Amino acid sequence: MVKRRINLDINFLVNILLFVFVGWFVYKRVAPVKNLRNLTDEQLREKLKIPGNSTLIDVREIHEFSSGHIQGAVNIPLSGLKQRLKEIPTDKELILYCQSGMRSKQAARILQKQQYKDISHLSGGIASWSGKRKSGNG
């Protein structure tokens, strides 16, 4: 009887720890990123009218970028972001986007840890973009 009680207690503790871990993981994915500016479709359009002030980075994978992206965007997939930091300017506002806004938030966290300061992202990702999309890698 005591052995069974101990097993139940251990199972209960394991379940609680698993629940806490999953909750923490989900929270980290959806939680707001400190100092990350959320841009609407319209706000991004206005920023893109002023050339040279910002760098637009599409953090989706290459095949996603090729299927359609915002004109002027550079493709630096989230999966290779840390290896390509030297390609990202430190003296311009960085505007990130992905498909829905989740990966761009992750990219912003990575960039902030690397001391990038002026970061925005397209809220809702390219799914919220109503403008034209350019196909191909150019």
Automatic annotation (TrEMBL):
CDD domains: RHOD. SUPFAM superfamilies: Rhodanese/Cell cycle control phosphatase. The chain crosses the membrane at residues 6-27. Keywords: Membrane, Transmembrane, Transmembrane helix. InterPro entries: GlpE_sulfurtransferase, Rhodanese-like_dom, Rhodanese-like_dom_sf. The keyword Cell wall biogenesis/degradation does not apply. It comes from the Bacteria. Residues 50-138 form the Rhodanese domain. PANTHER family: FAD-DEPENDENT OXIDOREDUCTASE, RHODANESE-RELATED SULFURTRANSFERASES. This is Rhodanese-like domain-containing protein.
